[in-house]
From TrEMBL:
Keywords carried by this UniProt record: ATP-binding, Coiled coil, Kinase, Membrane, Nucleotide-binding, Phosphoprotein, Transferase, Transmembrane, Transmembrane helix, Two-component regulatory system
Domain called Histidine kinase: residue spans: 345-583
Catalytic activity: ATP + protein L-histidine = ADP + protein N-phospho-L-histidine
Domain PAC span(s) in chain numbering: 137-189, 261-311
Record keyword ATP-binding present: yes
Coiled coil: 302-336
Entry EC number(s): 2.7.13.3
SMART domains tied to this protein: HATPase_c (SM00387), PAC (SM00086), PAS (SM00091)
Pfam families tied to this protein: HATPase_c (PF02518), PAS (PF00989), PAS_3 (PF08447)
Region (Disordered): 33-58
Record's protein name: histidine kinase
């Protein structure tokens, strides 16, 4: 047994590390003095006449170190004497099995706690090693814990033999690997779940090398590419791209930016069909090899839909352009018709003062001619001269009054016409401008018998487009005449109707204009459509369906405001305009675009 400490030391070294060396020395000490108890210290100096410390006196300190190492690592060691049929265990072994105090440990203590499923395998492994078939052993098994559960043990050790090769002793280290095995089980379960998820994923998941070699693909990849999985795994990745340059560009982007998402790429199927995908890239390590992880999401249907939408949009834009052109022509025609009505009305209205003035001037001329003849004939009497002067004075008064009236009509018509035709922006007083506008509409209003009441402060000014506002007010008046009052059908009634235009400041920088009539009102099903282009309830009776549409576009366009309508059948209609006192410098996109889409 003299060589046994050296053999145990070699076994410890093969086990690995300082713990193995300590185990070997401990087993050697126990082989020489199995019944001895070690002292707790070792002298640091050698006995007299010796060149080094007495190793037998230092051996107990090695035992202390082993115990410290076992306590620190949670490992356990054993030392089995095969000839004596005895086995020694470190105190950490029963604690590993859940014992607070070391229990009675008969020779079969360890074997009786083996898991039934591990028993035959482990015992066969030990028997093979003791028979000399292996130089060392390392295996894992389960031992029953004191609480009834199972502890996974990793055991490493070797047998020690005599000069004949017979195994006389064996020792080893045991480590609790229960948590590690649990983590391995959880990891395997996680990997299995991940694999199932990847297989069931509705998007293609692939792992490839940079040079285009396949490492993994899920079922959706094979479906996406139109190939069986085995065929797909044999196909170089580059050959799948509709344009092989796309993959080179993606690799360059990946090298430049790192992981990226949603690059639109085309793949070609064996039948020649094109598949559009969103490709996302990242890196992954698979079986120790760095690889590219890619997700492919099929967007072929979306691409086809986008293409169809583009074609439909282009066709719609062409139709919309044609419709806008036709609409602009109709709006221009409607505007000119409105201006033409204004001209006709003013011409009719101005005819009366011009006729009276012409009559007065003609009368003055005739009386002057009579006076001259009598003066030449020396037959002019004083009374006749005074009568002529009185007539001249009255005719002059009539002539001046009617010329002033005609001049006022001309001036009003000129200002309204210029505003509506030029579209210039200027500062104007709102109440005065509304009165001028209504003055130019007097012929049309006179025939209808309607009364128009204007309620507006004298100092309510606007820096805006009077022509646009005039167009709005004119269209509202004409709309009321045609739709609310039947274009004069109520002229013979005792109370033909009243239109009220009320304007007031709405804060510091806005005005509110209410245009109210007490006419027929608008049906509920018609009310939401009054601003739509070409919508009219007077089709075939002179209605174009553009009057209120022009009003809406003008209010929300150059005037920069809003308009709303309220109405009940038989109770009249109210149009509410909110306008900025200072019109916006830049005109927004015309509102009819939104109305037509």
């Amino acid at each position: 047994m003299a060589a046994e400490p050296v053999m145990v030391a070699l076994a410890g070294i093969s086990i690995g590390g300082a713990l193995g060396v300590l185990l070997a020395l401990w087993a050697g000490r126990r082989a020489r003095r199995p019944g001895s108890r070690a002292p707790t210290s070792c002298p640091e100096t050698s006995p007299p006449g010796s060149s080094r410390p007495d190793s037998s006196r230092c051996e107990p300190q090695i035992g202390e170190r082993l115990e410290m190492a076992l306590e620190a690592t949670g490992a356990a060691v054993w030392d089995a004497d095969l000839l004596a049929g005895a086995c020694w265990w470190s105190d950490t072994f029963p604690r590993m099995l859940g014992f607070r105090e070391p229990p009675t440990m008969p020779p079969d203590f360890w074997e009786r706690r083996l898991h039934p499923d591990d028993r035959d395998r482990v015992l066969a492994h030990i028997a093979s090693h003791l028979a000399g078939e292996t130089s060392s052993y390392a295996y894992a098994y389960r031992l029953r814990h004191e609480d009834g559960g199972w502890v996974w043990i990793a055991a490493t050790g070797r047998a020690f033999r005599d000069e004949t090769g017979r195994a006389v002793r064996y020792a080893g280290i045991m480590t609790d690997i229960t948590e590690a095995r649990r983590q391995e089980a959880r990891l395997r379960a996680s990997e299995e779940r991940l694999l199932k998820i990847m297989e069931a994923a509705p998007i293609a998941v692939n792992v490839t090398t940079r040079d285009g070699r396949w490492l993994f693909c899920n079922a959706q990849s094979a479906i996406l590419m139109g190939r069986g999985r085995a065929e797909l795994m044999r196909t170089p990745v580059t050959d799948l791209y509709a344009d092989p340059a796309d993959r080179r560009a993606l690799i360059a982007r990946f090298d430049r930016e790192g992981a990226f998402r949603n690059a639109e790429i085309r793949f070609r199927r064996p039948d020649g069909g094109i598949v559009w995908v969103l490709s996302s890239w990242n890196t992954v390590e698979l079986d120790g090899e760095a690889a590219l992880l890619t997700w492919l999401y099929d967007i072929t249907d979306r691409k086809h839909a986008e293409s169809a939408m583009v074609e439909a949009r282009e066709a719609a834009e062409r139709a919309l352009a044609d419709l806008r052109e036709a609409q602009e022509s109709l709006i221009q025609a409607e505007t000119m018709a409105s201006l033409g009505q204004l001209v006709a009305g003013v011409a009719h209205e101005i005819n009366t003062p011009i006729g009276i003035g012409l009559t007065a001037a003609s009368h003055i001329g005739e009386q002057a001619q009579v006076l001259r003849e009598r003066f030449v004939a020396n037959a002019l009497r004083r009374s006749e001269f005074l009568e002529f002067l009185d007539g001249l004075n009255e005719s002059s008064r009539l002539l001046m009054a009617n010329i002033d009236r005609a001049a006022s009509l001309v001036q009003s018509f000129k200002q309204v016409a210029v505003d509506q035709s030029s579209g210039d922006r200027r500062l104007f007083e709102l109440g005065g401008y509304v009165h001028e506008l209504l003055f130019s509409l007097r012929p049309r209003l006179k025939r209808s018998g309607l009364k128009v009441v204007v309620e507006c402060g004298e100092e309510l000014t606007m820096d805006s487009f009077p022509g646009a506002l005039g167009q709005v007010m004119t269209n509202l008046v004409i709309n009321a005449l045609v739709h609310a009052y039947g274009d004069g059908d109520r002229a013979g009634e005792a109370q033909p109707g009243t239109i009220r235009i009320a304007a007031r400041a709405d804060g510091a920088d806005r005005v509110r204009i209410d245009f109210i009539d007490d006419g027929a009102g608008i049906a509920p099903e018609t009310l939401p459509k009054v601003f739509d282009p070409f919508f009219t309830t007077k089709r075939g009776q002179g209605g174009s369906g553009l009057g209120l549409h022009i009003v809406f576009n003008t209010v929300t366009g150059p005037l920069g405001g809003t308009i709303a309508v309220q109405s009940r059948l038989g109770q009249g209609t109210r149009f509410i305009l909110h306008l900025p006192r200072e019109a916006p410098a830049l005109q927004p996109v015309p509102a009819q675009e939104a109305a037509l889409t």
